[in-house]
Amino acid sequence: MTMRLFVLGVSLLLTALALPSAVPAADTEEFLPIGLTEEEKGRLSEIGKNHQATNAPSGEIRNPAEWEPSTGVIIRWPLGISVSLIAEMSEDLMVTTIVASASEQASATSAYQSGGVTMANTQFLIASTNSIWTRDYGPWFIFADEQLGIVDHIYNRPRPLDDLIPQILGSNWGLPVYGMDLITTGGNHMSDGLGMSMSTRLVYNENPGKTQAEVDSIMLAYLGNDYTVLDYIESGGIHHIDCWAKFLNPTTILVKDVPTSSSSYALLNQRAEYLSQQISAWGQPYTIVRVYCPTGTAYTNSIILNDKVLVPIFSSSWDAVALQTYRDAMPGYEVIGFTGSWLDDDAIHCRTMGVPDQFMLRIHHIPLVKVADSLSGYSVEALVDAYSGADLIGDSLQIVYKVDDGAWNSVLLSAGGGADMFTEEIPGQSGGAEIAYYIKAADLSGRVETHPFIGAPWAHRFSVNVTPQIVADSSILCGGNSEIAFCPDVVDSDDSVHTVSYSNFPAWLAVSGDSLVGTVPAGLSAADSFDVAVTDGYNTASLTVVLNVILCGDINGDSIGPDLSDLIYLVNYLFLGGPAPFSTLISDLSGEGDIDLSDLIFLVNYLFSGGPAPTCGL
């Protein structure tokens, strides 16, 4: 017993020596607001005082997105959320509660047991904190060469206890901790899991000793993310991006909408418009979903935990509208509202921090959007990577698809293209078909995943592009008597924009926009031709056009005239049952749309009475 007490005493002494001297004892724990107090504004120089910077991680770095597979969530006691919300999270996840002491753990345990929390899915970390904002001071997670680690930023508050939590969690969980020399906050960062993240310019303003390029390079080095920094939408406040925007998937962003009377109305509209024009990691412009947030509400400040979206509600008539907005935007997810002591710049997201699945089964795939009309099929490629190291289950690797909302079918993925890469074709369909699909995989760790994460309800969709058709006469027909122009008429049921190109055309013709124009040289034979191609971006149609250049009024097509032989030809056609003119257009001298007596009168006037030359209405 004496030896045990001696060892315990030495252990406690070493622990005390390891703690920074500025860290107060647990019994001085405070309950601070999300923003700076007036007292803290005088201690900004203390921010990061005990931060431990390290080298950046090495290898391939990936910062997972919020909607990726999660195994846990981090909160703090005394609570900033309801026990009912904890009970909901504990149904599927390990809830890690930071408590200052064993007695607080006992209090939390009692409350959880009374509130229906799944106690098998709870664990406690004894550590002192200053506040409840685990999102803002908690760990940022990365995978470095598929190994889970923590990036520890400098918390942008002079709160030394909070700022130590990522290091304590890393030590407790056996994860490497990479100290990032950057003042920032978790609420001002959102990541798409594919190498892109966003913040407001608060991150630049709070690091005045660094250039914007230096800040961006730190984000790339520690998180593997290209960085987009957006202007503020308010003149004051905490300026966290999670107060007004949220990634729902790699190509969808939820953006706050406010009454027209709000000072943020115009700026939010500008941000939404700007984001809608940016290109996502899936190669598509972002889809922007607006959620209406009247004054005092923060519906964007939700958290996505696996297949659940936990949304703050405010006992407002707008709660139902906000929840339906999420359900419409995120089909297949369970969207649940929770009341609380929420503010318009602080709610569920600010007070919780998700923990990604360390051994997730990851599927990476860039969805098809539109494909060329092809009977041979549409190639789907995916990376399927078991971070656990467990073997994949071969017959689980599937593309599940349906055509025009018919029955679901599936094809097995085949290995190809490198380690963990798989590919297969969805069978070819007729032009204009719409195909919905998702990718499915399982491994021997027991994990079963789909891409997109939610699977069938939010399946990827692409359309089979219809090949355009070029509608063109075999002749180039002209206005006047020598100037010609050719511009193809394109028929395409699913596209309105086309690119026209010409090749192999004679030197007397020139490209002008989408047309070929030129002056007919004297004595031109009918031997010349050119090629025209029209593409809609997916399919290309081509046509060879023979240059039967016929002057307006050359009714018999002999490349001479109009002259008496054309008059005789027209009389024979109109009154004696003779052959039809070579082209309606060049014979419609009066420009009325058909060949009739008025054209005969027009030709007689031109040949014998000094009337105007025919232009065929062109």
Describe what this molecule looks like in 3D.
- Helices cover 20% and strands 29% of the residues.
- With 618 residues, it is of the alpha+beta class.
- The chain folds into four domains: 46-356, L-arginine/glycine Amidinotransferase, Chain A; 361-465, Immunoglobulin-like; 467-549, Immunoglobulin-like; 557-618, no CATH class.
- Strand 23 and strand 24 form a beta hairpin.
- Residues 1-28 have low confidence and may be disordered.
Q: What's the SSE blueprint?
A:
Layout: H1 2-18, H2 38-41, E1 61-62, E2 70-76, H3 83-90, E3 94-99, H4 102-114, E4 122-126, H5 134-137, E5 140-144, E6 147-155, H6 160-163, H7 165-173, E7 177-184, E8 190-191, E9 196-200, H8 202-205, H9 212-223, E10 226-230, E11 245-249, E12 252-257, H10 265-276, E13 287-292, E14 303-305, E15 308-312, H11 319-329, E16 334-338, E17 353-356, E18 361-364, E19 370-372, E20 378-386, E21 398-403, E22 409-412, E23 414-415, E24 421-426, E25 434-442, E26 448-451, E27 460-465, E28 469-471, E29 483-486, E30 489-491, E31 499-503, E32 509-512, E33 515-519, E34 529-535, E35 540-546, H12 564-575, H13 584-587, H14 597-608
Jot down its keywords:
14 helices; alpha+beta; 618 residues; 4 domains; elongated; disordered N terminus; L-arginine/glycine Amidinotransferase, Chain A; Immunoglobulin-like; four-stranded mixed beta sheet
